Amino acid sequence: MSMTQQAAPAVSTPPSPGPKQSDGRTRQRPLALRLLARPEVGVFLGAVAVFVFFLIAAPSVRQGSSMATVLYQASTIGIMALPVALLMIGGEFDLSAGVAVITSALTASMLSYQLTLNVWMGVIVALVVSLGIGAFNGWMLVKTGLPSFLVTLGTFLILQGVNLAVTKLVTGNVATDDISNMDGFDQARAIFASSFDVGGVQVKITVVWWLVFAALATWVLLRTKYGNWIFAVGGNKESARAVGVPVTFTKITLFMLVGFGAWFVGMHQLFSFNTVQSGEGVGQELIFIAAAVIGGCLLTGGYGSAIGPVFGAFMFGMVNQGIVYAGWNPDWFKAFLGVMLLGAVLINLWVRRTATRR
User: CA-to-CA distance for 141 and 319, rounded, in angstroms?
Assistant: First the structure.
């Protein structure tokens, strides 16, 4: 062999690729677990179960007029459950929401009747009052650092006493006067308390408003910066403040949204019945909170959706009317709701643990 002959360069063959290794952090979770992670999935399945149950137990529910009544009952709860749910996602809750509805209705009714004004003046002033109550709750919360339970419990007691005392002082009775013959009543009734025909069935306008508000709340939560702020302050407000989230603004405006919901439902009650009983509203705040909790919202904040409370309110309306259509003793209604609430909490707990399990 020649001394100048060079050996051919060795050609190295790359090893055949083996199975891709994963440490579990980038592994795609199964579709079922991803669906379970959605806060509204559990209540949706529960709503379907309750619906099917009453279709079997109460055949009259299958009638169109019966379903229209169920949807109406659900809408009056659902309109308030939506802002309450947003507030809960933001880490707070409002015990004054029920009596605030009556405060709004009383304000519009007495102002219009006693001063002989167009009812729209009462409606506008009632909106200002309702937003003011919400702003007061939020301001007290952020300035004092007190829990929302204590702040809104105080507001609840104040409004309950003021509703009754002022109504007696102004009208000499526990109810307001009939405003059905006043200027602007028919126009306001058309917006807040009218009905429309669908296939020969009368459907309340509140059902439409309920769905519109639900769509708007969903868009706000999932597609806007404000929605990110809500989740952030509910999860950890100090961390949210550290990254530039306006915690004070977010908290106060969430309480004002509850005030807006109270105003809208209050106007519906006023223009549906022409008069308002000053002692009503007590206990309704628990219904609104329960609908949000059943809908997947956590009392600890930072978790929930706007769609879940829609199904939660539907379950309330279905149970409320289904018991009547089935001919059962209506005294069992609250017991049934308590079972629903506990069941929803346990199901939501199981769903979240299952969804986060590796």
Answer: 35
DSSP annotation string for 236-285: -HHHHHHTT--HHHHHHHHHHHHHHHHHHHHHHHHHHHSS-BTTTTTTHH
Neighbouring-strand partners of residue 197 = 202
What's the token pair of residue 2? 């020649």
- Point out which residues pair with 202 in neighbouring strands: 197
pTM of the complete model beyond 0.70: yes
Q: Which two tokens stand for residue 251?
A: 């908290």
Tokens linked to 42: 């559990």
What gap in Å lies between CA 358 and CA 354, rounded to an integer? 9
Rounded Cα distance, 94 and 98, in Å: 9
Return the DSSP state at 146.
Answer: -
- Amino acid found at 14: P
Q: pLDDT tens for residues 312-348? A: 999 888 888 888 888 887 777 778 777 877 776 777 6
Q: Which residues pair with 198 in a beta bridge?
A: 201
- Contact present, 192 and 205 (Cβ < 8 Å): yes
The DSSP element (H or E) to which 192 belongs, if any, is helix 185-192
